[in-house]
Design brief:
With 361 residues, this protein is α/β, with parallel strands linked by helices. The protein has 2 domains: 189 residues, Isopropylmalate Dehydrogenase (3-Layer(aba) Sandwich), CATH 3.40.718.10; 159 residues, Isopropylmalate Dehydrogenase, CATH 3.40.718. A 10-stranded mixed sheet has the order 2-1-3-12-11-4-5-10-8-9, with helices on both faces. A two-stranded antiparallel ribbon has the order 6-7. Helix 1 links the parallel strand 1 and strand 2. The longest helix has 20 residues. The two termini are 24 Å apart.
């Protein structure tokens, strides 16, 4: 019997609708071939353009759609010339993270043999690690509410036991899953700055307590500055990395750079009951409407969604389709024949998406 999954779709701003459409079409085709699941999609208006028209960046009706869905597929959000009155950017994705308590920001970094990368990888080396960014507190805690006077400004970093313990359990569970499928040896690295800040010593203490519960998974620590160095020098040494919100924000862009750009960087923000899947890149309004955007990060985010739903609802066909979709993107990128402009090619958004479906067929 087929299980029907309801997907909330936030098509976003700028290039958002252009990369959302082919992604949804691929998902519809995959589901149409399956006897194990089907997908329904419901549009949820939000974003900077919606704010400019209506004065609401994340309407309550769209929030209700998100809450009632099985998963949320969210495209690029924000426009540089549309901001709140205080000057901050329109970012419904952050509002969703906080409202739905999506504490685990999952940022995969994968470099396959043959893939163009700024790194000078040794022959035969591939890179496959996951950065988990705490997504609801840390240095983002006072977003839009920092204290600013004539002479100084203050933002508050918050790390709580409640969220951190959930985060570390998630990290070790992910490492176990990766180990069980043969993708990695099973290791979690806590990335912090515990040598300077008491807050990160507290963070590390909770990490160590969770690590003690998983003797089958290796655990170690790394300071964030050293991690940035090692991500360039020896990224193949990492498996699962877990860190605070701001550190994760910065390191995830470094990870995207290692892969060749944000156009290849998918992400998920996952909580106990909900999950959002979205590309890491922005809305690129300068190329909106030109059919020139790279859809790969959006398609890879959709693959992550299939995998998460499949694991959550014990649907191995969905998990397999998620793997197939990810590997199809990796195949197209590694071959290098059909790449969009950001990756050095000339392919359109449509051509790149069609190539992914061709690799699946």
């Amino acid at each position: 019997m087929k299980h029907t999954f309801d997907i909330a779709v936030f098509e976003g701003d700028g290039i958002g609708p252009e990369i959302t459409q082919p992604t949804v079409e691929i998902l519809q085709k995959l589901a149409g071939q399956s006897d194990a699941y089907e997908l329904t999609f419901k549009d949820a208006p939000a974003g900077a353009a919606h704010y400019a028209k209506t004065g609401a960046s994340l309407p309550e009706a769209s929030m209700d759609i998100a809450r009632q869905s099985d998963a949320i597929l969210l495209s690029a959000m924000g426009l540089p010339n549309v901001r709140y009155d205080d000057g901050t950017e329109i970012s419904p994705q952050i509002d969703l993270r906080k409202a739905l308590v999506l504490f685990a920001g999952v940022r995969p970094v994968t470099i396959k043999a043959g893939q163009t990368t700024p790194l000078n990888l040794p022959a035969g080396r591939e890179v496959d690690f996951v950065l988990i960014r705490e997504s609801t507190e840390g240095l983002f805690h006072t977003q839009g509410r920092g204290e600013v006077t004539k002479d100084e400004a203050r933002e508050t970093l918050l790390i709580t036991r409640d969220i951190s313990e959930k985060l570390f359990k998630f990290a070790f569970d992910l490492a176990k899953t990766r180990k069980s499928t043969g993708r990695s040896p099973g290791k979690v690295t806590c990335v912090d700055k515990a040598n300077v800040f008491r807050a990160f010593a507290f963070f590390r203490e909770m990490f160590d307590a969770e690590a003690a519960k998983h003797p089958d998974i290796a655990a170690d620590h790394a300071y964030v500055d050293a991690t940035a160095l090692w991500m360039v020098q020896k990224p193949w040494d990492f498996d699962v990395m877990v860190t605070e919100n701001m550190f994760g924000d910065i390191l995830s862009d470094l990870g995207a750079g290692l892969m060749g750009g944000l156009g290849l960087a998918p992400s998920a923000d996952i909580g106990l009951d909900h999950a959002v899947f979205q590309p890491c890149h922005g809305s690129a309004p300068d190329i909106a409407g030109q059919n020139a955007a790279n859809p790969m990060a959006m398609i890879l985010s959709a693959a992550m969604m299939l995998d998460w739903l499949g694991l959550r609802y014990d649907n191995p066909v969905m998990v397999a389709d998620g793997v197939r979709l990810r590997e199809a993107v990796e195949t197209v990128v590694a071959k290098g024949a059909i790449l969009t402009r950001d990756l050095g090619g000339t392919a359109s958004t449509t051509q790149a998406a069609d190539a992914v479906w061709g690799a699946l067929a």
